[in-house]
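As noted in the main text, all predictions were made from sequence alone. Below is one such record, for Histidine utilization repressor.
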Amino acid sequence: MASPPVFPAVAASSAPGPQYLKVKNHLREGIASGHWVPGDLLPSEAELSAQFGLSRMTVNRALRELHQEGLVERVQGVGSFVAQIHRISSTLTVRDVHDEIAERGHRHEARVVSLARIKADEAQAALFGLKAGAALFHSLIVHLENGVPIQVEDRLVNPESAPGYLDVDFTRTTPTHYLLEAAPLSEARYTIESLLPAEQEAKLLGISRRDPCLVLKRLTFSRGQPVTHVRLTHPGSRYLLQGRFET
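Prediction:
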């Protein structure tokens, strides 16, 4: 029979401490390293007792605690198995700011600062897999809730995905609403940071350059093609980002 695996945690567990931790750390390290994967049958209590020179009661405690922590599943009369790992994912829905404000019973207003065709610099072009100098649409819009600025929307759009973008009146609809219809969403990539606002952002939001903001950057795709990249800047004191978690 092959020698039982030895993991770094076993050697580390030689320090003074409860004896059952030798077994617990050994099994935990084996699971973490992938030696035992979800669904694998772990060594029996008898095998672990012989390997570590400990009583079955001590080994049982190690397995019991791993079970309580969700790492091990125990089946009466069969043995202990590595637990299946349930994925936990954060769900951030691409939502229209107008709808969010309306749901609160408040009034939405949009101020279009700029709406133009531009030549992409290297960084902008890279987002869309284009060459520097390629055409992009750019919009800068301030969204207000009951007259108070809550979001600066700085957006780039791929003209191939939404050729009519510059003709839309964004005081009557939102870029999000228009783009979800023009190029149905298939994927979105997010980053969320706490940052200080740029000078123009602070001015548009009516806040100080020292006021922290929640900045969400999102690149969205339709049928595998990048459609739009947006930077949404919100004053930290006026915005709450909500999502939900699923298991």
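The helical segments are 8-12, 20-33, 45-52, 56-68, 97-103, 122-128, 175-182, 199-205. Strands lie at 72-75, 79-82, 89-91, 108-119, 135-145, 148-157, 187-195, 213-222, 225-235, 244-246. These features were considered when defining construct boundaries for the mutagenesis experiments described in Section 2.9.
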